[in-house]
Specification:
- Chain B: Keywords: Transferase.
- Chain B: Belongs to the sulfur carrier protein TusA family.
- Chain B: InterPro entries: TusA-like, TusA-like_sf.
- The structure holds 2 protein chains of 2 kinds.
- In chain A, helix 1 runs antiparallel to helix 7.
- Chain A has 11 helices and 12 strands.
- Chain A has 2 domains: about 240 residues, 3-Layer(aba) Sandwich (Aspartate Aminotransferase, domain 2), CATH 3.40.640.10; about 120 residues, Aspartate Aminotransferase, domain 1 (Alpha-Beta Complex).
- By secondary structure, chain B is of the alpha+beta class.
- In chain B, strand 1, helix 2 and strand 2 form a beta-alpha-beta unit.
- Chain B is globular, with a radius of gyration of 12 Å.
- Classes of the chains: A alpha/beta, B alpha+beta.
């Protein structure tokens, strides 16, 4: 079995498992209480917060924990818009942002706000000039841009976007879910979101960091927890485990470079060994672990099924693999082939032998599916 | 959904030499039918693909780009779906 879906979730890091078991013993009490076990839980929570904040380039008091990356995005988008409603009700987003950003934007529109979506080129990168023009529109309350695209890996021009936002006096929400623990966090964000299970932490820990001086007001009912930004009882053991995983990930020198070289190999080999294939996304300025390609005349679902039978866990942006029966909005916005699509994303520790087995199997699998569909030219 | 609307009268004027009815068919079937049949029309003639799978809206133009056949225009059909016009280039 080879698990190649790290962009969905990374397997729990062994050090995170160890930290989780330890923290379930010592950090189960209510961190808001003043007795000994409560104080201990508070101490552990703040320790985890400080470690994660350091990797993000944030102050610990800027960082709160949510129940997921999606919740961090929803709160980050809606809370910043709410805090800035006197400045205006206009929101700017990139066209290939995670659906959590786009759904928050739809919610803002239903609420009477306006949204501008900045388009992307063929590689999936937003046009930095168009983004800068969009954020300079009067009444812009917030702009959102991901560090790297979750389906195709392309890096976004976050530094240019941050400079433009600073010039326009507009806060920038950066969705760093795909890159925290893999690449340095780019400076210039006002709001930063991430998700622990993508860096080898446990599920159930999203990160929301709001820079001092950024206006923010929770869109949810009042609650005392997490600086009044996230309601509900803190998941102290999982935060500790998330911090342990991030610490371990950052210490793995050279691993991301190794994964990036494996992705290069996949990009090269797929293009060379499979006829009528489109390898998608930016070849160089990309996240280290993700590659996507589409095979002409192949049904994505059939390809996933065959690869699953052969022991490879990969996913697809093709419509037949989506519950909505629509292709991925990312592939659509890029104007690339959406059928026959496969996304490979490599977790830490992926062996080159597994990648080679995958590359050896793929051409014959694609050929067989095409043959069964009657494609013979 | 206006990226590929017809823009000039000349494009609108050329009638398709062949219409492939792929309505109700899921990708990649509309693309397979197009690839199979484009050589049955003369060079520079137009093939119209009728399709209502949302993937076809993106994938027919993407196929054109990959296969170097010009994508001429995409027209919305009154009952849903599109007529996607492709010119045979070789």
């Amino acid at each position: 079995m080879a698990y190649f879906d790290a962009a969905s979730t990374e397997p729990l890091h062994p050090q995170a498992r160890e930290a989780l078991l330890m923290a379930l013993e010592t950090g189960w009490a209510d961190p808001a209480r003043l007795y000994g076990s409560g104080r201990r839980a508070r101490l552990l929570l703040d320790q985890g917060r400080a470690e994660i904040a350091e990797v993000l380039g944030a102050r610990p008091d800027e960082v709160v924990f949510t129940t997921s990356g999606t919740q961090a995005v929803h709160l980050g988008v809606l809370g910043t818009l709410h805090g800035r409603r006197r400045a205006g009700r206009h929101l700017v987003v990139g066209a290939v942002e995670h659906s959590a950003v786009l759904h928050a934007a739809q919610s803002h529109e239903r609420d009477g706000g306006t949204v501008e979506t900045v388009g992307v080129g063929r590689t999936g990168a937003v046009d930095a000039g168009a983004f800068a023009r969009a954020v300079s529109a009067p009444g812009t309350a917030l702009a959102c841009l991901q560090t790297a695209n979750h389906e195709v890996g392309t890096l976004q021009p976050v530094a240019e976007a941050a400079a433009a936002c600073q010039d326009a006096g507009v806060p920038l929400l950066v969705d760093a879910a795909q890159t925290v623990g893999r690449l340095p966090v780019p400076p210039g964000w006002s709001v930063l979101v991430a998700s622990a299970h993508k860096w080898g932490g446990p599920p159930g820990v999203g990160v929301l960091a709001v820079r001092k001086g950024t206006r923010y007001r929770s869109p949810l009912p009042e609650d005392e927890r997490e600086a009044r930004r996230v309601p509900g009882f803190e998941n102290v053991p999982s935060v500790l485990a998330a911090a342990a995983a991030l610490r371990a990930r950052v210490a793995e020198a050279g691993e991301q470079e190794r994964l990036a070289a494996l992705i290069d190999k996949i990009r090269r080999t797929v293009a060379a060994t499979i006829p009528d294939v489109e390898v998608i996304g930016e070849p160089v300025d990309r996240a280290p672990h993700i590659v996507t390609f589409s095979c002409l005349y192949v049904e994505g679902e059939a390809l996933l099924r065959e690869l699953d039978k052969a022991g490879f866990s990969v996913t697809s942006g093709s419509s037949c693999t989506a519950s909505t029966l629509r292709p991925s909005h990312v592939l659509e916005a890029m104007g690339v082939l959406t059928h026959g699509n496969v996304r490979v994303s490599l977790p830490s520790g992926t062996s080159e032998a597994d990648v080679d087995r995958f590359l050896a199997l793929l051409p014959e699998t694609v050929r067989r599916i095409r043959q069964e569909a009657g494609v013979s030219w | 959904m206006s990226r590929w609307q017809a823009t000039t009268r000349e494009e609108a004027a050329q009638e398709p030499a062949l219409t492939i009815d792929a309505l109700g068919k899921k990708c990649p079937i509309p693309i397979i039918l197009l690839a199979e049949q484009i050589r049955s029309v003369p060079l520079n003639a137009i093939v119209a693909v009728l399709a209502d799978d949302p993937a076809a809206y993106t994938d027919v133009p993407a196929w054109c780009r990959l296969k170097s056949h010009p994508h001429v225009a995409t027209y919305e059909l009154p009952k849903g779906g599109w007529a996607i016009h492709v010119r045979r280039n070789y």
